[in-house]
Amino acid sequence: MAIAKAERLMNLALCLLGTRRPLSKRELRGSIEAYLEAGSDDAFNRMFERDKDDLRELGLVIETVESLDGDTGYLARRDSNRLPPITLDAEEAAALGLAAKVWQQARLAGAASGALQKLRAAGMPEAEDAYEVHSALEPRIPVHEAAFEPLMLACRNRRPVTFDYRKANAARPEQRQVEPWTLECWRGHWYLAGWDRDRGAERVFRLSRITGRVRSRAGTFVAEVPDVVTVRETVESWAGETATRTALIRLRTGAGYPLRSRAVSVRELGDGWDELEIPYGHGLDAWLVEFGPDVVVREPADLRADVVDRLRAVAKD
Q1: What is the pLDDT of residue 71?
Q2: Strands across the sheet with 189-196, in order?
Q3: Which of 12, 74, 146, 286 has the fewest beta carbons closer than 10 A?
C-alpha cells in the first residue's frame, strides 16, 4: 500500500510540474492510472484531496487556479518549486536547530524535524545544541488550537479561508471570509492577521475564538499582503499591547499577576483588594474579562462599560 501511494504521489507531482496550464481534476484522473481505478467519483475526490495535501506537506507548491468559466485547475510551477543551493555555517545551523526545538511540543513538530533532516542530507553542518546539556531552560511554543495548522498552511500557500468566529462580546459565532497573512503569538495567545473580505478591511482574529473547522477556498487574494513588520504592529495593537492612556482597576490580592507585571502603580486598598494603574489600549477589555470576579474596572467609564457588556454576553450564553 505504501509503495502504491508513493507511486501515485510521484505521478501526480510529475503531472503538476510538467504542465504549462492548470489541469482540472478530470484531466488528472485521466492521466494517472491509480485515479482511473478509483471505484467512484467520491472515492477519487477523497484520494486526490489527500494526495494534494500530502504533496504540499512535502514542500511542493501547488497553485489552485480558477478559470473564467469557473473551472478549478491545479499546477506546480517549476520556478516556485526550485531553490538555490543552500549553504549554512555552524551558527546558522545552530539557529535552525533551536528554532526546530521550539516546535517539538506543538503541531509543527513533524514538519520541523523533517525540514532539519532534509537540510542535513543536503550538507548542513551538525551544530552543538546549547539546550541539550546542563540547562534549566527549554524553548517551547505551545499550540493547542485546532485552527493553527490549517491556518498556517493557508498563510503559506496564500489560500483564502472561511471559519466561524465568536467575538468576546457576542453570544453566537458568525462566519468570516479571510485572506490569511500571518500568525503571531502575543503573551501566550495566537492571533491571525488577514484581510476580512466581508468587511473590506484588515482584521486580527484570536485563534481560541475560532469555532468549528477552518475551510480552504479556491481563488487568489484580492488584497495586497503587507510587509510582515506592518502585520506584527497590527497584531500588537489589536492584542492590546499599544497603550494610548491608562486605566484604574481594582484587583483581588494574590490574583492577576500578568496585570500586575504591566502596572504603572499599585496601591493596597485593604479588605483583600489592590488598586492598579495599567496601560490602556485596544483589546484591554477582552483581557480583563478573562480574570472574571478578581478584577473591577473603576476608570475610564467606556472601558468599564465594555467589560460589563462582555460579561453580560458570557452570562447569557
Answers
A1: 80
A2: 201-206, 189-196, 174-186, 161-165, 210-216
A3: 146
Helix, strand, coil abundance in the chain, percent, nearest 5: 40, 25, 35
DSSP H helix total and E strand total for the chain: 11, 11
Q: Buried (b) or exposed (e) across 191-229, using 16+ Cβ within 10 A?
A: bbbbbbbeeeebbbbbbebbeeebebeeeeeeeebeeee
Q: Say how far apart CA 270 and CA 73 lie, in whole Å.
A: 68
Is 198:176 a contact under the CB 8 Å cutoff? yes
Instruction: For residue 202, report the phi and psi dihedrals to the nearest 5 degrees.
Output: -75, 145
Neighbours of 175 (CB within 10 A): 11
- Which mean pLDDT values do the consecutive 10-residue runs of the chain (317 residues) have? 77 89 90 87 90 85 80 84 70 68 54 61 55 45 75 87 84 91 77 91 88 87 76 63 80 87 89 90 76 90 86 71
